[in-house]
Amino acid sequence: MVSNVSGVLKTYEIYKTDERPQPQKANKPDEHKDTVAISGRAKDYQSVRSALQNIPDVRDELVSAVKIKYESKASPVSDSEIADKLIGKL
Fold first, then answer.
1. What is d(CA 43, CA 49) in angstroms, rounded to the nearest whole number?
2. Which residues touch 26 (CB under 8 Å, ≥6 apart)?
3. CA 75, CA 68: separation in Å to the nearest integer?
4. pLDDT, tens digit, for every residue of 9-65?
5. If you write DSSP's letter for every residue of 48-62 in order, what string do you get?
6. What number of other Cβ atoms are within 10 A of residue 70's Cβ?
7. CA dihedral in degrees (66, 51, 48, 38; nearest 10)?
8. For 60-80, how does the pLDDT look when each residue is reduced to its tens digit (9 = 90+)?
């Protein structure tokens, strides 16, 4: 049996009229800002990555030098020797 009927009625009236106290919002919006920190290692990675993007995939000056030697027959290396070396690297 309920011994405190008036307390129960007061509680019922609060919930019935939806006059519940609202939680107070914090007045300090700067207190909970999101932040991002980039580590030194990540910065190093970014700088190396940008440097690698500036390097060409093929070094044309070296390729052209080898091509000139090959076409002028200045090198005593035969086609089969070149092929054997290339296959040996795989």
1. 10
2. 32
3. 10
4. 666 665 655 555 666 666 665 567 788 888 999 999 999 999 988 888 888 888 888
5. HHHHHHTS-SS-HHH
6. 13
7. -170
8. 888 888 888 878 876 677 788
What does the DSSP assignment read for the chain?
A: --S-HHHHHHHHHHHHHT-PPPPPPPS-GGGG-------HHHHHHHHHHHHHHTS-SS-HHHHHHHHHHHHTT-S---HHHHHHHHHHH-
Tokens of 79: 């086609």
Amino acid 37 reads: A
